[in-house]
Design the sequence.
């Protein structure tokens, strides 16, 4: 399908118009906006200090005072969930930001250079893909120890691969287009060709991939935190809240409910946006 | 009794944008051993007509009204399970694209045999022998070897031969061939057409052949029906229609028989414009927008269907209606 | 076909070597002294020297690598620091549990997705079609470390039907298998449906119907057979994600597989054992992908005859 990419100016208002017609995508966008607002204004929204320990009131179910109850140390679950939103979204955005940038640059250079450089990069990609999903990230965290920075590093080290592959594929296609040949023969510098001519045309798939990537990164961070290898206590993330929930599942099952709902809603919203963007950015795919 | 009698058939497609009247009040008859060609540009309802005879109109399409009498039985009224027993036994069909009409993951031999096993009480060995025999009949050089091949191992022409063998193995009374040669090389087209004609004669099958190629019609047809925008505009014995074409659309089609030197699949040029969208067909005669001899009445009312003289030559065009006969100059009628 | 298999095999070998090299390097990437890291505060000098010698870390890097590869070929992955037993032995003890869980989840995924996806496609736009799409959406978005606890709350805590964790008879595998299999069955349902819809639109389905075959034969013999070709590829690719999902699912349900061993070893800083787990999981993944490729070749005659 990518073969049909030709030089095109992606018109923002066209894309927005097509995106808007996809109801689920719009709902997704609204949901994500809400979550981002929660993350930004977390300090004002939290009813309690999320770190305040209150041993007397530990593992109390939902009540008027504590809407979502308290955890094993008597901390307010709602407050921790709100702060956790900030942590989880931040990790998602940072991981995707770095992976997409690094992956795009590697993909651009690899595809454009061709030859042994391209071969080498693609072999590295193959090898990284030979490890199933989270295994490599876990191994890296095992080496470096838990902590949010290590999680970000681990997820980035494994995350750039997808972008590199897609961008390289785009470059290989676009490279053969006449207008690139024309640009080359008129003596325009390589770096200009790469970033001014090729990159804009490869942007659509990157954006779509990044949207899905944020969802993936949020799940990966939650998984690591759930296993106790992500954020360091007492910092909350959705995954670490579920970790506490698992330990007390027999006595305080309510702890396991809400963080999961948050994760699922955000992941779903991002997937809707991703689908919507894919259709809006490349309407030809939709008709297939 | 005629083998097949289609009476006032209407097939509509109910889509989100509106109702597409793909086949709108179509009637024709087919006698035993006869070949009828349905002719017209793509999108004029030929294939839909054919698919309704074999009962393969699928959502959102529906047979709205009319009768399809096959040996006196109205196929429209039959239950799905009863209709199924006619398919592959009494009525067979071959399609335009031999490249995609065979299942890519099953051996061609099996695809023929399964038809026999479904409908007849035969053993696997008998079925296989019969299949090989028919592969020979359609002049496939290595019939035994071909039996065990997959479709992608065969050329387009060979695949269409397999399709023909499959369609005729049960010696059906009616074969429907929907543009069977359009997708093939020019050199092979004629071979396939001759094969269909020979087998038709030796098996005594009647044929409905759908084509947009007047050359094919001249080659094979006994009768011809010209369709335009869901309606039959002219029909009759092939010699009658070819020698004395009356409807301006038929005249246009006859002026557009591809010569050997025209590239394959090139558009037929002589009639300007396109087949109208059938969601909102033009009022009056559906052809009037493209017709060079349009009368005022053509934009207002649908032309009546009438018979020319004592023949089976029927036509739906205001030019030949008694009321408007005066308007037509005889020279002009045959000239164009 | 044999050439195809050999070809795949040749593509697999460099990956296996690369995986081994990465696993070898693993212990050397630990910042600072890995041995002190491992032993933490309990380290004594004698202790540190002993472990260093046991791991062969006192030799030059090149020699270490050769030793590592030599031992690897003999199936020797060194000894666990905690229990001092051979890593290979420990990992192999845990291996069957992981395989059991993975296979059970794959079965769950297939027995849900193939009928549901097929039905959804055959009854396009019906309630069952909508239901399948909702299931697909929820299943894909629901992380297994949430689904697991939810299932425990429902089936163990509330209904008391199934044990919340542990290893034993058939009862014990149900919840873990559903937890691990749901995401896969959700995405496969969507795939079976779309693949089936595409196939049902093909000319050869029209041919099959024109032959007067029973609708059941048209669906199963002609449509499903072709619709499953892409499904099998994705199914194979996803067995890998089952393996990584098993890491988490095993932890939720205290399932004694390699995944749980892996997580435990990370916490115990038992690096040789971590290495062993990574290696065995990655090799399983590579092996599964190889098998999937071969199977794909068998199903798709276009590949088989080239």
Sequence:
């Amino acid at each position: 399908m990518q073969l049909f990419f030709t030089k095109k100016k992606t018109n923002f208002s066209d894309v927005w118009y097509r995106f808007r017609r996809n109801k689920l995508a719009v709902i997704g966008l609204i949901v994500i906006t809400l979550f981002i607002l929660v993350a930004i204004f977390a300090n004002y929204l939290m009813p309690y200090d999320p770190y305040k320990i209150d041993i007397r009131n530990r593992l109390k179910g939902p009540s008027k005072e504590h809407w979502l109850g308290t955890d094993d140390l008597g901390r307010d679950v709602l407050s921790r969930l709100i702060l956790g939103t900030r942590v989880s979204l931040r990790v998602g955005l940072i991981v995707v930001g770095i992976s997409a940038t690094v992956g795009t640059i590697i993909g651009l250079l690899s595809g454009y250079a061709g030859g042994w450089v391209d071969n080498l990069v693609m072999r590295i990609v193959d090898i990284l893909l030979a490890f199933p999903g989270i295994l490599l990230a876990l191994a890296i965290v095992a080496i470096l120890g838990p902590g949010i920075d290590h999680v970000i590093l681990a997820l980035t080290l494994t995350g750039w691969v997808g972008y590199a592959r897609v961008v390289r594929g785009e470059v290989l296609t676009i490279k053969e287009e006449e207008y690139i040949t024309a640009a080359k023969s008129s003596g325009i510098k390589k770096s200009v060709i790469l970033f001014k001519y090729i990159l804009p045309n490869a942007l659509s798939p990157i954006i779509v991939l990044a949207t899905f990537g944020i969802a993936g990164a949020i799940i990966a961070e939650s998984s690591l935190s759930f296993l106790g290898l992500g954020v360091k206590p007492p910092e909350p993330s959705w995954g670490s809240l579920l970790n506490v929930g698992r330990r007390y599942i027999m006595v305080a099952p309510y702890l396991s409910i809400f963080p999961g709902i948050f994760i699922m809603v955000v992941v779903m919203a991002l997937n809707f946006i991703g689908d919507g963007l894919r259709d809006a950015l490349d309407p030809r795919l939709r008709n297939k | 009794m005629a083998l097949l009698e289609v009476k006032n058939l209407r097939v509509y497609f109910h889509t989100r944008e509106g109702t597409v009247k793909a086949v709108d009040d179509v009637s024709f008859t087919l006698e035993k051993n006869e070949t009828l060609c349905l002719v017209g540009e793509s999108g004029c309802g030929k294939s839909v007509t054919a698919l309704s005879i074999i009962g393969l109109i699928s959502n959102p399409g529906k047979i709205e009204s009319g009768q399809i009498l096959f040996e006196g039985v109205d196929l429209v009224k039959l239950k799905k399970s009863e209709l199924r027993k006619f398919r592959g036994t009494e009525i067979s069909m071959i399609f335009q694209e031999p490249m995609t009409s065979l299942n890519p993951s099953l051996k061609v031999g099996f695809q023929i045999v399964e038809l026999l096993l479904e409908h007849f009480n035969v053993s696997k060995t008998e079925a296989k022998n019969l299949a090989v025999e028919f592969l020979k009949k359609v002049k496939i050089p290595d019939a035994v070897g071909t039996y065990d091949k997959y479709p992608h191992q065969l050329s387009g022409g060979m695949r269409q031969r397999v399709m023909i063998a499959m369609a005729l193995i049960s010696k059906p009374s009616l074969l429907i061939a929907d543009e069977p040669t359009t997708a093939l090389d020019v050199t092979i087209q004629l071979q396939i057409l001759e094969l269909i004609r020979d087998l038709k004669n030796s098996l005594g099958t009647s044929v409905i052949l759908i084509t947009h190629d007047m050359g094919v019609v001249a080659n094979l047809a006994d009768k011809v029906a010209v369709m335009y925008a869901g309606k039959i505009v002219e029909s009759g014995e092939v010699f009658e229609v070819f020698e004395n074409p009356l409807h301006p659309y038929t005249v246009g089609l006859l002026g557009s028989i591809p010569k050997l030197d025209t590239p394959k699949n090139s558009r037929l040029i002589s009639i300007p414009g396109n087949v109208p969208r059938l969601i909102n067909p033009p009022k009056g005669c559906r052809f009037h927008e493209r017709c060079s001899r349009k009368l005022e009445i053509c934009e207002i009312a649908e032309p009546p269907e009438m018979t020319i003289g004592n023949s089976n030559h029927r036509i739906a065009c205001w030019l030949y209606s008694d009321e408007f006969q005066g308007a037509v100059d005889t020279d002009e009628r045959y000239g164009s | 076909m044999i050439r195809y298999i050999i070809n795949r095999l040749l593509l697999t070998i460099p990956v296996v070597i690369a995986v081994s090299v990465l696993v070898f390097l693993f212990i050397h990437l630990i910042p600072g002294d890995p041995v002190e890291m491992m032993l933490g505060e309990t380290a004594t000098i004698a202790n540190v020297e002993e472990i260093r010698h046991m791991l062969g870390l006192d030799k030059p890097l090149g020699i270490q690598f050769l030793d590592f590869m030599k031992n690897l070929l003999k199936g020797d992955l060194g000894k666990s620091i905690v229990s001092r037993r051979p890593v290979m032995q420990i990992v192999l003890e845990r291996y069957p549990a992981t395989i059991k869980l993975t296979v059970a989840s794959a079965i769950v995924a297939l027995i849900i997705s193939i009928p549901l996806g097929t039905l959804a496609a055959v009854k396009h736009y019906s309630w069952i079609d909508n239901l399948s799409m909702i299931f697909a959406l929820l299943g894909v978005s629901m992380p297994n470390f949430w689904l697991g606890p939810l299932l425990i709350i429902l089936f163990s805590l509330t209904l008391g039907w199934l044990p919340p964790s542990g290893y034993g008879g058939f009862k014990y595998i149900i919840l873990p298998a559903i937890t691990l299999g749901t995401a896969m069955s959700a995405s496969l349902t969507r795939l079976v449906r779309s693949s089936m819809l595409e196939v049902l639109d093909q000319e050869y389905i029209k041919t099959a119907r024109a032959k007067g075959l029973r609708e059941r034969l048209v669906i199963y013999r002609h449509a499903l057979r072709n619709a499953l070709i892409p499904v099998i590829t994705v199914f194979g690719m996803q067995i890998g994600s089952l393996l990584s999902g098993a890491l988490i699912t095993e932890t939720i349900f205290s399932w004694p597989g390699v995944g749980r061993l892996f997580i435990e070893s990370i916490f115990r800083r038992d690096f040789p054992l971590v290495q062993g787990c990574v290696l065995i999981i990655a090799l399983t993944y590579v092996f599964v992908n190889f098998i999937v490729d071969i199977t794909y070749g068998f199903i798709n005659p276009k590949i088989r005859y080239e």
